[in-house]
Amino acid sequence: MRMTLMVWITVMLPGLILGCGSQARDKDPKVSTEIAMPFDVRYSYGFPVIAVYVQEDWLYLPDCPRWKGLIVAIWKNGRIVWGADPADGGPPYYVGTIRPDQVRAVLETISQMGLFDDPDIERHRINYGPDAPFIAIAIDDGTRCQQLSSWHELFERNSTLVATEQGIESLNGRNRDEVLAGCSAGYRKFREVWEQIRKLLRDIIPIDGEVLEDFVFFLQPNP
Known about the structure:
The chain is α+β, with helices and mostly antiparallel strands. It has helices at 100-112, 119-124, 152-155, 176-181, 185-204, and strands at 2-4, 36-37, 50-61, 64-74, 79-83, 93-97, 126-127, 134-140, 145-150, 161-164, 167-170, 210-213, 220-221. The protein has one domain (2-14, 28-217). Helix content is 22%, strand content 30%.
């Protein structure tokens, strides 16, 4: 069965990272940060609670980020949309369902990793250079929101590079694991949590789904 999904989203850019915007519910300011979520209008899906996407750069159009691909988005009712490419996302896209209690369990597991309250994660949650592509992991559990943005997955596909907290470096014959072992404990913790979240979300994607045609998407600050 084939389905057609069109997503129309506006982009509001007060700065390089989009804000949570006006909020229909109270969020704890101590554990809420600036995030951007895909938002469906045509099918009234609303904002997902989890989204992972690749953003290519911020200078493609004036005041408008270029979006490369959605990797996965999960809604609290169990709806899940994912791209065919688990690394870069992008079409074709598929839609399926998981149980709502699975969504709650994923959010609780992510919370226990320290996403919302670990100072090391907060300190390192933005890891990319000017105008560079990055992957974003955006989480909103209803009372708290957090977004991790990093370029390390993209640049480390090149076997000669390593992403440290100082930037992208050439290995120059060094071992990547040894270089990362020399980074701060906080940065290593950030990378560890990032990998755990990415694996958790990869594992929850259904084997089969219905194809979504004409899937058009942008970003909008979540409510």
